[in-house]
């Protein structure tokens, strides 16, 4: 009996320590992330629908995408959305996800940013959305699932531009609607990598739109039509970009 009691007590102590460590770690994450928030909002008191923007592996400041993110954010604000950049790279003082940033860490940051937005009086609490690109899109899909230390992040919709599906560690069972936008010429994060992840999901929860003659980054106006990188091909496609933007806006306004 004494042995059982000691074992029980040891488990309680271990659990208490784990909770305290997790709480401290989460507080530190919030502080690091909040230093790099870039929030833009429409004029007025609101409340407005909100969009969390989550960049690809190279972040918001890479030369080949920096201006595109500025344009996208301003256009979303002009449409009446509060926008918040979830800069998971700056929060860790790295320039690429290849520097050891997992999709689970991105998902955790999305959850922290969602909590921050819900505290703002100018944000509609029932219209909190995520728009991600490539690795950031994978993080957004990861956020919908449940992991050992994290509950699914509560959001109202996810838009995933050419998501790196092979990085997502588990399927999700949430009812959150997801829109996927991907080019059929994408050899960086090809659509085929998403087949297993998406298999069996009902149509009302998942919409996939594909675009012919479109590479990875097809919506990035700062790119040439086709550019070879060590990780694959990227390129802007005006027709696909306009169609995808229209699709996304319609989806977020539902």
CATH fourth-tier homologous superfamily of the largest domain: Alpha/Beta hydrolase fold, catalytic domain
Q: What is the H/E order?
A: HEEHEHEHEEHEEEH
Question: How large, in whole angstroms, is the Cα Rg?
Answer: 19 Å
Task: Give the percentage of residues in beta strands.
Answer: 15-25%
Low-confidence stretches: 4-24
Query: Percent of residues in helical segments?
Result: 25-40%
Q: How many beta-strand segments? A: 9
Q: How confident is the prediction overall: mean pLDDT? A: 90
What CATH calls the topology of the largest domain is Rossmann fold
CATH classification, class level of the largest domain: Alpha Beta
Oligomer: single chain
User: Which architecture of the largest domain per CATH?
Assistant: 3-Layer(aba) Sandwich
N-to-C CA distance: 60 Å
Tell me the overall shape: globular
């Amino acid at each position: 009996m004494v042995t059982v009691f000691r074992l029980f007590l040891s488990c309680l102590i271990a659990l208490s320590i784990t909770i305290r460590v997790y709480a401290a770690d989460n507080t530190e994450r919030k502080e690091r992330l909040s230093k790099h928030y870039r929030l833009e909002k429409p004029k007025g008191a609101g409340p407005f629908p909100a969009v969390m923007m989550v960049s690809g592996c190279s972040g918001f400041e890479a030369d080949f995408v920096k201006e595109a993110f500025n344009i996208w954010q301003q256009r979303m604000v002009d449409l009446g959305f509060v926008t918040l950049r979830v800069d998971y790279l700056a929060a860790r003082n790295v320039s690429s996800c290849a520097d050891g940033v997992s999709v689970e860490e991105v998902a955790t940051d999305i959850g922290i940013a969602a909590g921050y937005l819900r505290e703002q009086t100018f944000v509609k609490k029932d219209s909190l959305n995520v728009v991600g690109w490539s690795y950031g899109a994978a993080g957004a899909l990861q956020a919908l699932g449940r992991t050992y230390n994290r509950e699914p992040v509560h959001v109202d919709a996810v838009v995933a531009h050419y998501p790196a599906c092979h990085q997502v560690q588990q399927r999700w069972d949430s009812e959150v609607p997801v829109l996927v936008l991907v080019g059929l010429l994408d050899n960086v994060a090809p659509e085929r990598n998403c087949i297993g992840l998406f298999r069996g999901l009902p149509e009302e929860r998942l919409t996939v739109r594909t675009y012919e003659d479109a590479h990875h980054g097809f919506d990035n106006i700062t790119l040439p039509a086709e550019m070879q990188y060590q990780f694959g091909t990227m390129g802007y496609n005006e027709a696909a970009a306009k169609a995808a933007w229209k699709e996304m806006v319609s989806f977020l306004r539902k």
